[in-house]
Structures are given as C-alpha cells and as structure tokens.
Amino acid sequence: MKYDTIIFDFDGTISDSEGAITRGFQKGLAAFGVEETLENIKALIGPPLGKTIQTKYGFSPEDGAAAMTICKEFQISDEGLAVVSLYDGIVELLNELKAMGLKVAIATNKPFPTVTAQLKYLKIDHLFDAMESNNELQNRGSKTDFVRWAIEGCGSTPERCLMVGDRSNDLVGGRDNGTDTAGVLYGYGSREELAGCNPTYLCESPAQLLDI
C-alpha cells in the first residue's frame, strides 16, 4: 500500500449507527411538534444535522440546538448505544492496517462526546492515532477542516493519505486536501452519489480497502 495514513469517516463507514441517529433526530424533531419518518431522516445522515435542522425544517438556531441536544443524548444513552454496531470486517481491517504500521484516523462531523462514547462502546477507541470531530453546536469546522487536522495529527502529508467515506462530503473533504479518496458502497450513500465525486477507488466492503 502506498499510503502511510488512512482517514475514515465514522457513521456509515466504520459504524452502522443509523438507528441511533435517526431515532434520536426523530425525538428531537418531535419535541418541537415536527413528525418525520425514519426513512426520510436516514437520507440526511452525513452532513451536520445541526445545520440541516435549520435549513430543512426551519428551526431557529436556539430551537435547533435544543432539538440536537435531545438527539445527541439519545445516541449516547443505553438505548441508543444498543442499536450501534460495526460493519462486518471493520475490526479486521483496522487491526490489519495497524499491523502494517499505518496510522489510522477519524474525521467526522459527529460531535466529540458522541463519537468518543460510541467508539468506547464498540471497543475500538484504542485503534486510532488521531480523531477530529465537531463540537456540540456542530460549528467547529467542515469535513475539509477535519481531514486537514487529521493529516496533521498523524504527521503525514496529503499524498500519503487516503480518505475513506460513504457520502459525497467525505470525498470532497479528502479532495479539498489533495488526498486520494475511497468511496465505500456499504454505507448510507449511493453508488451514483459517490461516483459523481470521481473517487480514486470504490469499495464494496471494508476488506477491499486492503487490496488498494
């Protein structure tokens, strides 16, 4: 492998956290009288939901923050953690990358307390050399910022890094920093969405990343 650092998105790439996100977001909306289906919410996973709740549902910044607090609290509750799981092959992939001497990092729009709680619950927090994530208000930065900071945190350079994700914003974040990109087709984004970003690679499974 020509890379020394692999940077992963979290939701839809490492963790199948759809149930926790959609149910938490649904609860946040419902607290303000907005009813939404889980299927419609699923399509929103990827970009910061703290912004989506304002642009799509017309929430004020204050109400949006309150609704997102409900969402985030559910995600780290026992009920929310119980519906979070790892994609098949992820643990094996991460262990193999570490055995090969590569640095492994996360760049995610997910707020720091939520992603750290889920990493600990999934028992994989020790496998990452760096993690860049959002703050509680989801205004710390963009995916492009998180990827750049992850590169710096691992002491690498863009040409030696691969950004891996399941949505277009992941691939754009890598491309903006000059990294190669890998779109994974087992997450929340469609083949059409990922192919539209002209990724360096498209992978059907975590194991295929080892063939790069």
Task: Show the helix and strand layout.
Layout: E1 5-8, E2 15-16, H1 18-30, H2 38-42, H3 49-55, H4 61-75, H5 78-81, E3 85-86, H6 90-99, E4 103-111, H7 112-122, E5 130-134, H8 143-153, E6 161-165, H9 168-176, E7 180-184, H10 191-195, E8 201-203
Parallel strand pairs: 1-4, 1-6, 4-5, 6-7, 7-8
Antiparallel strand pairs: 2-3
Q: Could you characterize the architecture of this molecule?
A:
This protein is α/β, with parallel strands linked by helices. It has two domains: 5-16 and 85-211, Rossmann fold; 18-81, Orthogonal Bundle (DNA polymerase, domain 1), CATH 1.10.150.240. The chain has helices at residues 18-30, 38-42, 49-55, 61-75, 78-81, 90-99, 112-122, 143-153, 168-176, 191-195, and strands spanning 5-8, 15-16, 85-86, 103-111, 130-134, 161-165, 180-184, 201-203. The strands form two sheets. The protein has a six-stranded parallel sheet, with helices on both faces. A two-stranded antiparallel ribbon has the order 2-3. Helix 1 crosses helix 4 and helix 8 (143-153) packs across helix 9. The model has no long low-confidence stretch (mean pLDDT 94).
